[in-house]
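#onboarding

Welcome to the new folks! Below is a worked example of what a typical request in this channel looks like: someone posts a single protein sequence, and someone else replies with the predicted structure as tokens. Don't worry about understanding the tokens yet, we'll cover that in week two.

Example request:
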Amino acid sequence: MNFAERLRQARIKRGYTQQQIADKMGITNSTYCGYETGKRQPDVAKIKQLANILNVSGDELLGTEFINDKIELLPREQSHIKKYRQLNADGQSKVDEYTTDLVDSGKYAAVEQPVIDIEYTEMPVYNEPAAAGIGNYLQDSTYEMMSFPADSIPAGTDFGIRISGDSMEPIIKDGSIIWVKQQIEIENGEVGIFVLNNDAYCKRLHIDYDKKIVELISDNTNYKPIVIKTIDSLRTVGKVLFNKVR
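Example response:
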């Protein structure tokens, strides 16, 4: 593996998102994303910072911690070697004998773990959040390209957008990234991204055809529906794809 792959694997193993690492480092998400895609190379200070956050050594991230036969050492293995070197010759001999007995018995052979090859893809994610509660301006908002596991993005996705507010909880959490298929219409009852009078909303569309009422509904019952008036300007940006929410 190269540096970018080792970094991505270490982050996933620790359960961090790219945004969380970027926040801890005090850099932008796009800068950190560049580290994982290989488009950017962190300097020595940043590598040390990454190592501290991910609780690994800089050598592990760089791939320079090897023994003679070029097998990379895990932190646990490094710890055993340090302890081994603290023993005198007799102590080291006993460790050698015991280790040999364990290996020869065959009872403790390591099970080879399958290599999981994760495919990543880049998607545009709008920096200006769509409000799930109050409106935020979306038109002409900037976006950044971010890397995600390909199988976490539903088919038909055109872009992602970060959500601000809790009005669509429990399904859509505050701060989460949702995936959107760009289209000018959605079905009654579906969740979409709308621009109402120049403010962006993530809401559920509700149309009462008998009463001729159009509303943008929150899943959180603490929020009242937004009733669309004839003087309002309403535009549908796209449909929210629910099967994958990050």
